């Protein structure tokens, strides 16, 4: 009896050790899959991965990746992670791809996808996704991943949008127009608030969040050939109108001057947590962050609505998101990358991070998207507009950031600042 | 074991090798030459080459042209960028030099008197130096925050003083970046000055005291002249370091508002990684190199000559 017990204990210990050892072998810090797996795929990812700073999300991704690799036991994923300096990371990756040193596949930000397309560094993905899957994508997503030859060059798996958050106890009704927002913000300052907050510092968020106002007026940044047109003709008028709207918010005190220093959505969360603001323009993902940050009673005061337009029926909102693309032209690797996009990212990862899917059907598939908030976000995608997929966009954005700082701080008059930004963008366009 | 014994024990082949190259330095320094050539010289040469092309990050074709040089140097933004750089570099060098010397003098005097806290002071200053630039930028962003809960403005409010638009006012923001960089670089100057102060012959101070020199006279007529070489070398080093600084600024202000705090290193970064203009960035990198070398030569010309030493 004693020996049987010892044997059973030894056997169970061995089995436990073996299973632990197997689990450890399947998922290390930079590898998913067995170390001696015959096939290998080098994958470079953002924090939408086991590298996420939130331990629960990191663990969730690790589980998704391990489940995925169990279905493909001949493979191992060699993981590389990007820093948060996305612009630089993407530019470096483009250089690597051109030199033939890029990873097999990687996360590519949707707004720089065109740079990769024009350099012909992305593998053709068309045959790896069914027509139904492609047709199910929102139209702006579909056009974003398709090149001029109508070939699918990447899989855009998540999207987002910007909304106006408000504290209902201070601003009861959702502002519908620019004037409404100004009045509500000014009224909130009388209750000790800062007014409306938005990104106005030197970073991409400043351009992207403000563009919703320009797009609501029907303005265009570039023409069909990708040449900047925002500083001429009707576009110039619309641009100035949208720019003056933000300037007026600051000049009137409806927004604090410090908006020109805000270059991070976390600043808005901090202001909400400190109860110093009742209104801010932020991303849909901040709703979950507010829920995690604020007490339940405080959180219940917060809601969101579409970004106000010049009139109630002129609305727009910026939509972005991440794609998975393949730099390797090896057929097996392209297929494996397509599997990764389909089995890990297209659906499961959306649900894990509550990041809006790019396919309509997935909103019904996952319960997490059946909440009122996520339904509203999904409905608002109707007004969504993506950044133009042209190589000059990053420089246009850079110039708009400079312009915004000059205008909001009072250094330059709006028209002078616009002219300077437009001329600089045209000069840069000529050099591309 | 004597050298003769080593030779006797060595195998004949090795001995032949040693004898053949004993008087030739090239084989011994070749590894260093190769490493410097690959990792230092080649990138510099390539930057010079790229500045004579129209290369971009997203294009495959590149032609040799002088257009990139004329474009980059005639850019209407360049004078503002150079002015912001001058304020940032000049202010940082002066501030770091003076504060570094002051802290070093305080530490030395404290040590002489056996005061408690000199090690703590030295360590505290060094902490700022070891903090990465990006982290330093985040720390100062929190301090300069103009939100109602911003650190420095909250202190001013407690003292019933008006708050300051540290980062949103284009006239004040450059000084804010300057303060953060002086904070970060003072420790390096302190270390250099501390070592130089330690090496001054104490008999010079004894002689000055015998002659009845006051403390300030001793400082200006003994200490400073003795520190001349160290000050100039330190200035060369911190000038080069500051001209290349952009990590702290990109976190603190991103170069804004507008272009108020966009120094040349950040401008180059933006041109290459936002505008994808590799040749324009290369031209400006060469300009940065010329500025750094020019300033270094100017400082070096004031270094005491061998006969003066």
UniProtKB/TrEMBL annotation, chain A:
Organism expressing this protein natively: Rhizobium leguminosarum
Full protein name: ABC transporter substrate-binding protein
Taxonomic lineage from the root: Bacteria, Pseudomonadati, Pseudomonadota, Alphaproteobacteria, Hyphomicrobiales
Family indicated by similarity: Belongs to the bacterial solute-binding protein 1 family.
Biological processes annotated in GO: maltodextrin transmembrane transport; maltose transport
Keyword Phosphoprotein included in the entry's annotation: no
Bilayer-crossing regions: none
Keywords carried by this UniProt record: Plasmid, Signal, Transport
One example GO MF annotation: maltose binding
Record-level GO cellular component terms: ATP-binding cassette (ABC) transporter complex, substrate-binding subunit-containing
Signal peptide, first to last residue: 1-23
From TrEMBL, chain B:
Gene3D superfamilies to which the protein is assigned, alphabetical: MetI-like
Topological type in the membrane: Multi-pass membrane protein
Localization annotation: Cell membrane
Gene Ontology CC: plasma membrane
Keywords noted in UniProt: Cell membrane, Membrane, Transmembrane, Transmembrane helix, Transport
Predominant cellular place of this UniProt entry's protein: membrane
Bilayer-crossing regions: 21-42, 81-108, 120-143, 163-183, 283-302
Domain of life from the UniProt record: Bacteria
Pfam families xrefs: BPD_transp_1
GO terms under biological process: transmembrane transport
Boundaries of every ABC transmembrane type-1 domain copy: 82-299
Family: Belongs to the binding-protein-dependent transport system permease family.
Protein name as annotated: ABC transporter permease subunit
Native organism: Rhizobium leguminosarum bv. viciae
